[in-house]
Amino acid sequence: MKAHVDTTSLPDPARAHGGLVFLSTWSTGTPERQRAAVEAIAAAWGSRPWPHEGLLSYTVYAGADGSTLAHRSHWRDEAAYQDFFAHGRDERNAEIDEAVPGIERLGLRKTRLRDGVARAAGDDRVAGAIVITEGEDADPQTAPGLISRHFHVTTDGERVISYAEWESAEGLPAAGTYRLARALEPR
Q1: What kind of fold does domain 3-186 have according to CATH?
Q2: Which of 10, 27, 136, 147 could potentially form a cystine with 165 if both were Cys, beta carbons 3.0 to 4.6 Å apart?
Q3: How far is CA 145 from the centre of its chain?
Q4: DSSP per-residue letters across 152-176
Q5: What percent of the chain has pLDDT over 70?
């Protein structure tokens, strides 16, 4: 089974029930290195079979700050991730690091979907920006331009991560704001 690379479809954040969503951030340093890292990720993933049947989707977002990349991977369970970690992760990362040396991996948050405000039935707006932050806003249902917001709790129960889809990045702070760079699913 190969990886299907898509540059237009965001994952359905409400689909995460019953699985784990891992969110990680990388710093590349410059917009040029950010673009090069996205291309290296697409090459490393697209040239190999899908790495594990327990990986349901993998999405990479480019930060509006021109330096960061956010990664969202949806796993069936922890055992599937651990198997991939032991038997496939290092080869992909080595290829990416060879293409773009010095990427700084800033952390990984293992989460479970807690709740959220899902996209309304029939809402066909395309998300122009994703905002990933720690913590919860007081009233996520009333913000103009907000399409959906989902709250994930880290598996240790220590943090809440907000994953929100917005119509555009206009008026949003650069920190924590992303656009879709690559979405990969098994095919």
Answers
A1: Alpha-Beta Plaits (3.30.70)
A2: 147
A3: 20
A4: EEETTSS-EEEEEEES-STTS-STT
A5: 88
